[in-house]
Design a protein that fits this description.
The protein is an all-beta fold. It has no helices and 6 strands. It has a single domain, classed as Immunoglobulin-like, CATH 2.60.40.3080. Helix content is 0%, strand content 67%. A 4-stranded antiparallel β-sheet has the order 3-2-5-6, with no helix packed on it. The protein has a two-stranded antiparallel ribbon with strand order 1-4. This is Secretion system C-terminal sorting domain-containing protein.
Length: 76
C-alpha cells in the first residue's frame, strides 16, 4: 500500500470484470469496487483506501471463474 492505495497484481483467467469487496473484522462490508475490461493474464488493480481506518480487513475478489480471499493490514 502506498499513498492510501491498496495495490494488487492478479494473475489468471480474469477476462472481463473483477469485483473487489473489503470487510472489517466484524464482517461488515466497508468497500466495494468493480474493475472492468480486464484481460486474461496479469492485471494490476488499485483501490483508494484513504477512507478506511488502520486495522485488519479481509478482501474477496470475484472473477467470472474464480474467487480469491485474503487479509489486509492497514497501518496509518
Amino acid at each position: 500500500m502506498s499513498k492510501g492505495l491498496i495495490e494488487m497484481t492478479i494473475e489468471g483467467d480474469c477476462g472481463g470484470n473483477l469485483e473487489m469487496e473489503i470487510y472489517d473484522v466484524a464482517g461488515r462490508r466497508t468497500m466495494k469496487e468493480t474493475f472492468e475490461n480486464l484481460q486474461n493474464g496479469y492485471n494490476e488493480i488499485s483501490l483508494n483506501a484513504n477512507e478506511l481506518s488502520g486495522g485488519v480487513y479481509f478482501y474477496r475478489l470475484n472473477t467470472k471463474s474464480n474467487q480469491y480471499k485474503g487479509k489486509i493490514v492497514l497501518i496509518k
